């Protein structure tokens, strides 16, 4: 479970301070797919960086399965972050490494034994449907295939939470649907909690259980997707 408690993040740009996130409180239950939607500048990226401990809130706290990630530092933060994985809009793959090597990378960093990495990578390749592409380089893959690598890599260390940052925004509509189906499948199969940020209503409608609508750093609406997106 993820709890955001009265989070504020102020960027002090020297002249006019900006509240990128302004008094946001949210709860994401275990196993939910939770969407955060808003226009550019609404504060979505800042919120996701607070969720994975890349930014510290100016005030408030972020609890992930009871652990205060916003207060964690050093080794504690590093270990907590291994369980909070990210999927990115522009994939962020290592371009000089193969599909398998990209997926193995975070496990190597975490210090997993070689044999375990090998088994897990094979399992993940199957899961995301990249059989036969193990030794390809990212430049030889389509956008959808690159994102499948991004998802497999994010799952390598069996995270508690998957954070998707505009994960389908660089993809065409058909590929977007395939990637959303994959995320839904992973969520249903493993009960993995997914938080995704997007500016696309379609993404939220297709896979999210709940949604928060952000505007100027604030959550202006929150609830079940059917309720928030249906006019009374
Ligand atoms: P979104 O992801 O919804 O586009 P952001 O979280 O990137 O929104 O940005 C929210 C607001 O905070 C914007 O006004 C942006 O300019 C500002 N902002 C974000 N990051 C920084 C930063 N590191 N320093 C100063 N201002 C920032
Ligand atoms: P795509 O064009 O497949 O959508 P991106 O534009 O998201 O990929 O690429 C992300 C980053 O990686 C960019 O900075 C881009 O310049 C760089 N990049 C893309 N392809 C390669 C490659 N084959 N080798 C090295 N860097 C690359």
What can you tell me about this protein's structure?
The protein is α/β, with parallel strands linked by helices and 232 residues long. Helices cover 36% and strands 27% of the residues. It is built from eight helices and ten strands. The protein has a six-stranded mixed beta sheet with strand order 6-7-8-3-9-10, sandwiched between helices. The radius of gyration is 18 Å and the shape is globular. The two termini are 30 Å apart. One adenosine-5'-diphosphate binds at residues 90-91, 95, 139, 143, 146, 170.
In short:
This protein has 232 residues and is α/β, with parallel strands linked by helices.
Describe the protein's topology.
Blueprint: E1 2-11, E2 18-28, E3 33-37, H1 44-51, E4 59-64, E5 67-68, H2 74-81, E6 84-88, H3 99-109, H4 114-128, H5 143-155, E7 161-165, H6 173-190, E8 193-198, H7 201-207, E9 210-215, E10 218-224, H8 225-228
Parallel strand pairs: 3-8, 3-9, 6-7, 7-8
Antiparallel strand pairs: 1-2, 1-4, 4-5, 9-10
Helix pairs in contact: 3-4, 3-5, 4-5, 5-6
The structure holds adenosine-5'-diphosphate (2 copies).
One adenosine-5'-diphosphate binds at residues 90-91, 95, 139, 143, 146, 170.
Largest sheet properties: 6 strands, mixed
Give the structural class: alpha/beta
Strand content: 25-35%
Shape: globular
* Unreliable stretches: none
- Summarize the amount of helix as a percent range: 25-40%
Instruction: Kindly state the number of beta strands.
Output: 10
Overall pLDDT, averaged? 95
- The neighbouring-strand order within the major sheet is 6-7-8-3-9-10
Ligands bound to this protein structure: adenosine-5'-diphosphate
Order of helices and strands: EEEHEEHEHHHEHEHEEH
**Cα gyration radius (Å):** 18 Å
- Distance from N terminus to C terminus (CA atoms, Å) equals 30 Å
